[in-house]
Write a structure and sequence with these properties.
Length: about 280
């Protein structure tokens, strides 16, 4: 295999690997971040102190429950115990949605908030109050997306890493290939960060009620915090590796040593001249 063919093959493999970087990070975040109840609850926990989120929760629950429960719900969001209720509610909702997605079925996903209220305030006893969290029409689409993410979340990052290693291995100049891979990884991280920002703008723009946009923005930022960190990490690592390759002289000898070696005279000629 000639050097030209090796460079072309290496460039194709590296380009494909860098193209898969943002998609692999997005799929892994959805499969191992959003689908993990513990990580989900941890990401959502700080929102319990957000006033916009508290008002949105109160409005959403009041629209589902009966009139006798509304004063209690509104008062609960203004207390310190709301943090406990918020964590337990997110845990219960997340587990209910995951159970419905994994077990199948075509029924609406609902959550009973009476046990949540009892955990926060033991003196209050509420009747069974079912709150809808996911309509049946959205469940089938969510189940299909979840099945795809389970596969893509593992195989996309593994495929990207394997293609990058193969591209560097077959290259005629491996330092140059490593530099290209690092720069492509940094570009993929930048595209991932841009996609998160564009997704936030589109999500908030599509909301029919502008009043709920601050709360939706806070939730979006909490859920995508890991993605933003990963995007910055990819950019930083990629640029650091590329700069290291540049400083170590990836094209051969350092510039200061090129052409510095002078021709050594032949010892035999020196001896002859001395004798003469």
């Amino acid at each position: 295999m000639t050097s030209r063919v090796r460079d072309v093959l290496s460039a194709a493999l590296i380009a494909l690997a860098c193209l898969l970087v943002p998609f692999g990070a997005l799929a892994a975040w959805a499969a191992y971040g959003l689908a993990d109840t513990g990580r989900y609850v941890t990401a959502m926990a700080p929102l319990a102190t957000d006033p916009a989120v508290r008002d949105s929760v109160a409005d959403a629950v009041e629209g589902e429950v009966g009139e006798p429960v509304r004063p209690f719900v509104r008062a609960l969001t203004r207390t310190r115990a709301f943090g406990t209720a918020w964590d337990e509610g997110n845990r219960t909702v997340h587990q209910a949605v995951l159970r419905a997605v994994r077990e199948g079925g075509h029924h609406e996903v609902t959550v009973d908030i009476a046990p949540l209220a009892a955990r926060v305030e033991h003196r209050v006893t509420l009747p069974r109050t079912e709150v809808a969290v996911l309509p049946a029409s959205e469940l089938d689409r969510l189940r299909k997306g979840y099945d795809v993410l389970e596969v893509a979340g593992f195989w996309l990052p593994v495929t990207a890493a394997a293609l990058a290693v193969a591209g560097i291995a077959v290259a005629a100049c491996r330092r140059r290939a490593l530099t290209a891979t690092a720069l492509g990884t940094a570009l993929g991280g930048a595209l991932l960060g841009l996609a998160v920002a564009v997704g936030r703008h589109l999500t908030l723009t599509d909301l029919p009620d502008p009043v709920r946009r601050p709360a939706a923005g806070a939730v979006y930022d909490a859920l995508t915090g890991t993605l933003r960190t990963v995007s910055w990490l990819l950019v930083a690592v990629g640029l650091a590796v590329a700069l290291t390759c540049r400083l170590t002289g990836r094209y051969g000898l350092p510039p200061g040593r090129r052409g510095s070696a002078a021709p050594v005279p032949d010892p035999a000629q020196q001896s002859t001249r001395a004798q003469a």
